[in-house]
Structure formats: structure tokens, C-alpha cells
């Protein structure tokens, strides 16, 4: 047998096989050298690692181009129904520092959208992602003295080898009433499917001032000032709003939302018209919903509904009822959260000044909507008030979720439990009115990025026992159930995990000079920092373990490395205090000689996709501990499960379905269920009663309150403790006891490596449902009315008579 491949070689091989296709290696080398020389203008003596990465990226891109053009030609010819995925959260991550290792590929920061694009291309759908090309993406997080500090993410500084600007397709981005025209410049990025010759397009818009910007107004005047003022227009695509599950209501954000909508709809209509061959003269829009599906990722692109109505009625001169029928049949809406502070409610006053015609249209939509409700529920003012698109209490606002529900033919949540909450609570009146509209589409993740690329060792091991087909059909993982008792397979699975842990420990040592114990349990809690995700509950557990060790230093203890990471929204005070508490506890625990190697607390700086790819494969225990009813689905939970971590979690979001798939006995499920939370709300949650009743909780809280972890500033955490005692919406104390007990069960099982790994294998075998291929197949058939793999794109080197006279679409 040949020497086994290193991870790096496996990754490279899989990347090349999967994304580029099997190409001549000598050709690849030549192309690489050509790019280093001509594109980057470097020789090997002075080339930096980034130059090598860019040369490689250009080489890979070259190999996509043929397929990319071919795919788009094919769509133009076959004219299938197009699927448009609109999101304010597409974001290409920084180009990677490290050369060969990351052979590739788009590195997105936002989880939900990128998996879907991958799956849409893999399933051969004629799909497009549309969004904004932010000049500054999600900030980089630095930890200074234990506090989060934000830095701008200047990700375009060195250029982006994946994108292609298309200035020739520049469009009007918007005409604000109070300012001038803003142009939208498209940047296209190829989205390759897995081994199927399909390359779809993600088109991101960048705001540009027209060359005559402000010059007509200022004609006699200030040319210099007019050029400087171009920034006003171009600021629209400057920066991604970093809020997570929070609606801020800023004017610039509304401009962003309308900007992407205005440019995208023009593009969609143009494509619809150009692919309608043989119909000269006035376009018929009758077939529009048969040719176009638009998926609204959250309410952020909701202005697309009044915008399409405006185009149909004002420009294309359709009558209102026809336009409304077409519009509703075109749109579908995905809800992503039930937290009230996250729901978008734009002030009428702001819409009045910025988008008065759209406001008129919204009013008219609301009028017919309310007329219908009045007819069905006569004299029911309360019903009208609850279902109106316009909220009248306090400042008048447009409820964007209501607009999306009324303007779509399908509305979905992202996990069973979440979709049920939507139907029975948040949008109950709407689901009673149109029950057939409400659906569930449980989220998923792409096994290409979240197994093949990030964990080649495990991917390869699985392929050895069940073959490679599982990559495109993740349900096949259930075949692993035959190997649960296979001693060799158990040994190999645990070896892969141990290798990943060693590698991650090495990474921490190189980058941060922190040493961790690689034989300890890696207990990982990485996701955005938010009260509802309850990093605080984890923190209370850490302190409890610490107190137990100090009280009984010689008692047996299952060593743990607790790794917590995530960004706090810059304006979210409580989330930033949570980070400071974690780092402060780490400071004390990590430097206490009594603790030694038993317990370490690491705050993982700047958690992002590229770091997720490193830490998730190295994780033993995945923390998914949100208050039941608050996490819509989660996707982190699925990534960990696929990578051989066990889950400690509440019955929330997709955890419920993970437990259903793997069997509840194969997860560490604890705490209140949704019903228990509702009951506790009814009787009133009294944090103090738990504090008085549970000695270990009392001790922990007394330590935080008295400044045990902040000796220089004993008052430091008083906002935080005050919240926990007096107004904790997420009921941390109510789950404290159950969580501690459950963690003891985790430690106990970890002492038996064979039993632990058997449970790991059962979990991996049960992960099939959580492929985004399954999610997208459901959207395709149940929402968009298209069939996956309807279209087979031929390979680029195989001439096809029928593709000629190509017009770009
Ligand atoms: C998957 C992912 C998330 C989502 O994690 P949840 O646990 O579902 O909140 C967030 N950030 C990054 C970088 C991710 O990769």
C-alpha cells in the first residue's frame, strides 16, 4: 500500500476532484505559473504566500469559467424556471492567508445562505444568489484586556480573485426622493455544484455614483465638492450591519434593503424579457410566476413585494389585481426568528420621505387585506389591529413580516418546532386565515464544506466503509450503523478525532501561545454571543466545576477544555459583558495552581467560518443550550453532529429533530421544554427562588457579585447579575440544576472512550437529514415548483451543436 495521504493532500485532492473536475495536473501547474507571472507579476523569489494563494485561486477560477459560461448558455437556451435567493447577508469572507491548504473556494461568513447556494448548484437548479457587495464585511473581533474590540474588515484590500465586475450591466440602484440616482454595479462570483458541471452565479451589487452626480444641481458651482459628494451615494454598500437578531431601524440600512431589491428586480425582469423569444412587442407577464421564483431570506428584502407591484402597475401597466396575483405567486418568505426585537418594523415617516410610492402601494395592499378580514370577521377591531400591515400604537410602523406573509404564496420556518411556534403563536391569525400557506423547511448544511473540506480525515474514513456516494446523498450515512460495534472502526473514528484535536491544539499554541491539554474533553460553545443562546449558563457551569475542584482537589475529575467563541453586536452591552465575564473567569481558573491541567477556559477570538472549520472537527462536546422556543433552528448544532461531536442541548430548534433522528438517548438533552417555559411564564419566573434553593448556584452568583473574578473592580458585573436576578427573559437559573446534572452524565460517559465513540458513530449515522441538499430539494418541490436535476449540464470540453448565438443573461 502507498503511504497514506496527509490531510493537506486529501483536502487538495478532494477539492480538485470536486470543484475543478479531474484535470491534467501538468496543465494546472502551467496555469499556476502563468498566473504568478502575468497576473501577479511575481517570480518565485519574491512571491508571498498570498501571491501563491491568488495564483492558485485564479487557476481554479480558470477551470470554472468554461463550465460557468456553458451553464448560463444552457439556462438561456432551455429557459427553465429561475430561482432567485435574495439575502442581505451574503458575504464573501476575507481571502485566505494560508496558501495551498485552503485550495479554494468561497469562504462565506453567514452560514445559512452559502450552504443553500452550494446545494442549489449541486442539485442543478437554475438559481441565483442576489445581495450586496459590502466593502466592509462583519467586523474582526479582537480581545483586549478581556473586552471585545471591533476592527474594520477591509477584505477587498488585496482584491478578490473570485469576483468578476460587470460594469456593462450597471443598473439604477434607486432613485431616492431626497437625493440623486445611485447606480448598482454587479459583481459575479461562480458557484460550482459538486461534480456536475453546473456553475451558478452569485451577483452582488456595489453602489456607484453616476458621473454627473450632483453636477447638474451645482452646475455653476463646486465641481470638487460634487466629486467628493459621490461618497454619499456610494456609502450604501459600504458596510454590513453587524446586528444579530436585532432590528435597529437606521435610514442607511433601509437604503441598503431597497438598493438590493431595486437592482435585483430590474435584473430579473430583464432576464425574463430576454429569454422570452418570439414574443415581440409588449411582454406578457402571464407566465411570470411559472418562470420566476423569488425567495425572501428573512424580511430584509421585503421591499421587493411593493417594488414588483410598482413595476407591474406603474411601468408595465398591468391592472392591480393581475399584478397582485402574479406577485403573490412569485414570492415566498422564510422567517428566521421569533424574538420580537428582531422583527423589522419600519417607521411610516421614514418610508414617506424615502420611498413614498412604495408606501402608497403598501397602504393599498393593506386596504384589500383588511377588507378581506373585515368581511370574514365582521366587527372584530382587535383582529384588524393584530393583522394590519401598519401598526398604529406609538409611532406608525410597517410590520415587514406581515407584508411578506400577505405578499407570498408560501411562508416557512426553519425547523419543525419553530414552524409550529410561527403557526400557533407569532403569526397565528395569518395561519388560521391561510393554513395551506404555512410550511416547514428544516435547515441544513452542505456536507462539502462541513465534512469534506473541513474534516478530510473523517470524510475519507467514512468513504472507506460505505463508499463515496454519501457526499451527494447524505442519508447513506445510516449505513454506518452497521459499524457501531466494529472495533476497528471505533478505533479509527476516535483516532481521527484525536488527530483533529492535536492539530487544533497546535494551532492555538502557534497563533495565541496558549497550551491546552489535548487529552481533555474539548467542550465547545461557538456562535454569536446573545442572551438567548445562554453562554451565561455555560459560564455558571465552568465556575461550578472550578468550585468543586477547589473544594476537593484530589477527587477524580474528568479534565475539560471549555472553548467559547463568538462576536457580540457592537451596540449590545450585555453581550459584551458576557464576553468580559468569560475572559475574567478564564483568567482566574487558568492561573489557579490547584486546578492544574483539569480545567481550562479559552475564549476563541474572532469566531468566523474559517475558524469554525478548524474547531468543529476537533470538538468532543457541542453546546446547544438556548432557552427552549428561542433558537429557530441553528446550523452549528448540525455541523458538530456531522463532525463527530456529541450534543448537550435543550429541546430547541433543530436539536429536537437531531434527537428524533439519533434517538434522544444519544444526545444529552436537559432542561425546560417549550411547554415548561410557557408554564413558568404564566406563574412568573422568579430567579431569586432558584438562587435561594440551589447552594452551588448561590455560591457562583455570590462570587460574581462580590468581585471574585474582577478584584480590581468588584462592581464590574453588576448589570449582568442584576439582569440575571431581576429581568432575565431567558431564564438561565431555571435550567441551572438540570444542566449541571446533565454535564455530570457527559463527564461520566467520557471516561469510557469506547462507549463515547459508539455514541458518536450513532450520531454521525443519523445526520443525513441535515444536508442542505435535502432542505433545497424540499424548497424546490414544495415552494418553487422546480425539480432538482431537471437540467444536466454537459462537460465543457464536449461540443454541443445547440449552444450558439449565445446572448448573455
Ligand atoms: C454555522 C455558523 C454559525 C451559526 O451557528 P449557530 O450555532 O447555529 O448559531 C455562526 N457563525 C459561524 C462562523 C458559523 O460557521
UniProtKB/TrEMBL annotation:
Presence of keyword Transferase:
yes
Q: What is its EC number?
A: 2.4.1.1
- Renumbered to this chain, region (Disordered) spans 790-809
A GO CC term attached to the entry: cytoplasm
Provide the reaction this enzyme catalyses: [(1->4)-alpha-D-glucosyl](n) + phosphate = [(1->4)-alpha-D-glucosyl](n-1) + alpha-D-glucose 1-phosphate
BP GO terms, sorted: glycogen catabolic process
Record keywords: Allosteric enzyme, Carbohydrate metabolism, Glycogen metabolism, Glycosyltransferase, Phosphoprotein, Pyridoxal phosphate, Transferase
Family as reported in the entry's similarity comment: Belongs to the glycogen phosphorylase family.
Q: What does the annotation say about its assembly with partners?
A: Homodimer; enzymatically active. Interacts with PPP1R3B; recruits the phosphatase PP1 which dephosphorylates and inactivates PYGL/glycogen phosphorylase.
Please give the name of this protein: Alpha-1,4 glucan phosphorylase
> What is the protein's species of origin?
Lates calcarifer (Barramundi)
The root-end lineage is:
Eukaryota, Metazoa, Chordata, Craniata, Vertebrata
Amino acid at each position: 500500500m502507498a503511504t497514506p495521504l496527509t490531510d493537506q493532500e486529501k483536502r487538495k485532492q478532494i477539492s480538485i476532484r470536486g470543484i475543478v473536475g479531474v484535470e491534467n495536473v501538468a496543465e494546472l501547474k502551467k496555469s499556476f505559473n502563468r498566473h504568478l507571472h502575468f497576473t501577479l507579476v511575481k517570480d518565485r523569489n519574491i512571491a508571498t504566500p498570498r501571491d501563491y494563494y491568488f495564483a492558485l485561486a485564479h487557476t481554479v477560477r480558470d477551470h470554472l469559467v468554461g463550465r460557468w459560461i456553458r451553464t448560463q448558455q444552457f439556462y438561456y437556451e432551455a429557459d427553465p424556471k429561475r430561482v432567485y435567493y435574495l439575502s442581505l447577508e451574503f458575504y464573501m469572507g476575507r481571502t485566505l492567508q494560508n496558501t495551498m491548504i485552503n485550495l479554494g473556494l468561497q469562504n462565506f461568513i453567514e452560514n445559512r445562505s452559502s450552504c443553500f447556494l452550494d446545494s442549489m448548484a449541486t442539485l442543478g437548479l437554475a438559481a441565483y444568489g442576489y445581495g450586496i457587495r459590502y466593502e466592509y464585511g462583519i467586523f474582526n473581533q479582537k480581545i483586549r484586556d478581556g473586552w471585545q474590540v471591533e476592527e474594520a474588515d477591509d477584505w477587498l484590500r488585496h482584491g478578490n480573485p473570485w469576483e468578476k465586475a460587470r460594469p456593462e450591466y450597471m443598473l439604477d440602484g434607486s432613485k431616492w426622493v431626497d437625493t440623486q440616482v445611485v447606480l448598482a454595479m454587479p459583481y459575479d462570483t461562480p458557484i460550482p455544484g459538486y461534480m456536475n458541471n453546473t456553475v451558478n452565479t452569485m451577483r452582488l451589487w456595489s453602489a456607484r455614483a453616476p458621473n454627473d452626480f450632483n453636477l447638474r444641481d451645482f452646475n455653476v458651482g463646486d465641481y470638487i465638492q460634487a466629486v467628493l459628494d459621490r461618497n454619499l451615494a456610494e456609502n450604501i454598500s459600504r458596510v454590513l450591519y453587524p446586528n444579530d437578531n436585532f432590528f435597529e431601524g437606521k435610514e442607511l440600512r433601509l437604503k441598503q434593503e431597497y438598493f438590493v431589491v431595486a437592482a435585483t428586480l430590474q435584473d430579473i425582469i430583464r432576464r425574463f424579457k430576454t429569454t422570452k423569444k418570439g414574443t415581440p412587442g409588449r411582454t406578457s407577464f402571464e407566465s411570470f410566476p411559472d418562470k420566476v421564483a423569488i425567495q425572501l431570506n428573512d424580511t430584509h428584502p421585503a421591499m421587493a413585494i411593493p417594488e414588483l407591484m410598482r413595476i407591474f402597475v406603474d411601468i408595465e401597466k398591468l391592472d392591480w389585481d393581475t399584478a397582485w396575483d402574479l406577485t403573490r405567486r412569485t414570492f415566498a418568505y422564510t422567517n428566521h426568528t421569533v424574538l420580537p426585537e428582531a422583527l423589522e418594523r419600519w417607521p411610516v415617516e421614514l418610508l414617506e420621505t424615502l420611498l413614498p410610492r412604495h408606501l402608497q402601494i403598501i397602504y393599498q395592499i393593506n386596504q384589500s387585506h383588511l377588507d378581506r378580514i373585515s368581511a370574514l370577521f365582521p366587527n372584530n377591531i382587535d383582529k384588524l389591529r393584530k393583522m394590519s400591515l401598519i401598526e398604529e400604537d406609538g409611532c406608525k410602523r410597517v410590520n415587514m413580516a406581515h407584508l411578506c406573509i400577505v405578499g407570498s404564496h408560501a411562508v416557512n420556518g426553519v425547523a419543525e418546532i419553530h414552524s409550529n411556534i410561527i403557526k400557533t403563536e407569532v403569526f397565528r391569525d395569518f395561519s388560521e386565515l391561510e393554513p395551506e400557506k404555512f410550511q416547514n423547511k428544516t435547515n441544513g448544511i452542505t456536507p462539502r464544506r462541513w465534512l469534506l473540506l473541513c474534516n478530510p480525515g473523517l470524510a475519507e474514513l467514512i468513504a472507506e466503509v460505505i463508499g463515496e456516494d454519501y457526499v451527494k446523498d447524505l442519508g447513506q450515512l445510516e449505513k454506518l450503523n452497521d459499524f457501531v460495534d466494529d472495533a476497528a472502526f471505533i478505533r479509527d473514528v476516535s483516532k481521527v478525532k484525536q488527530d483533529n484535536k492535536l492539530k487544533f491544539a497546535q494551532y492555538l499554541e502557534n497563533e495565541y501561545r496558549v497550551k491546552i491539554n489535548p487529552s481533555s474533553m474539548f467542550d465547545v460553545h461557538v456562535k454569536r454571543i446573545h442572551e438567548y443562546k445562554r453562554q451565561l449558563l455555560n459560564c455558571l457551569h465552568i465556575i461550578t466545576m472550578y468550585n468543586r475542584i477547589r473544594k476537593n482537589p484530589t477527587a477524580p475529575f474528568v479534565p475539560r477544555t471549555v472553548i467559547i467563541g463568538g462576536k457580540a453586536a457592537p451596540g449590545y452591552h450585555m453581550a459584551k459583558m458576557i464576553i468580559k465575564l468569560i475572559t475574567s473567569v478564564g483568567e482566574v481558573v487558568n492561573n489557579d495552581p490547584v486546578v492544574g491541567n483539569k480545567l481550562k477556559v479559552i475564549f476563541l477570538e474572532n469566531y468566523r467560518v474559517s475558524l469554525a472549520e478548524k474547531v468543529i472537527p476537533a470538538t468532543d462536546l457541542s453546546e446547544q443550550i438556548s432557552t427552549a422556543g428561542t433558537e429557530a433552528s441553528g446550523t452549528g448544532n448540525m455541523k458538530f453532529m456531522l463532525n463527530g461531536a456529541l450534543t448537550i442541548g435543550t429541546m430547541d430548534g433543530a436539536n429536537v429533530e437531531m434527537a428524533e433522528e439519533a434517538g434522544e438517548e444519544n444526545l444529552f438533552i436537559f432542561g425546560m421544554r417549550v411547554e415548561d417555559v410557557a408554564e413558568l411564564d404564566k406563574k412568573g419566573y422568579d430567579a431569586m427562588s432558584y438562587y435561594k434553593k440551589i447552594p452551588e448556584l448561590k455560591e457562583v452568583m455570590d462570587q460574581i457579585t462580590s468581585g471574585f473574578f474582577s478584584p480590581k473592580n468588584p462592581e464590574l458585573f453588576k448589570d449582568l447579575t442584576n439582569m440575571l436576578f431581576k429581568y432575565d427573559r431567558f431564564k438561565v437559573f431555571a435550567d441551572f440544576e438540570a444542566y449541571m446534572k446533565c454535564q455530570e452524565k457527559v463527564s461520566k460517559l467520557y471516561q469510557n472512550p469506547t462507549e463515547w465513540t459508539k455514541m458518536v458513530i450513532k450520531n454521525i449515522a443519523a445526520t443525513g437529514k441535515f444536508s442542505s441538499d435535502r432542505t433545497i430539494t424540499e424548497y424546490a418541490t414544495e415552494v418553487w415548483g422546480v425539480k432538482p436535476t431537471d437540467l444536466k449540464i454537459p462537460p465543457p470540453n464536449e461540443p454541443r451543436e445547440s449552444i450558439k448565438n449565445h446572448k448573455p443573461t
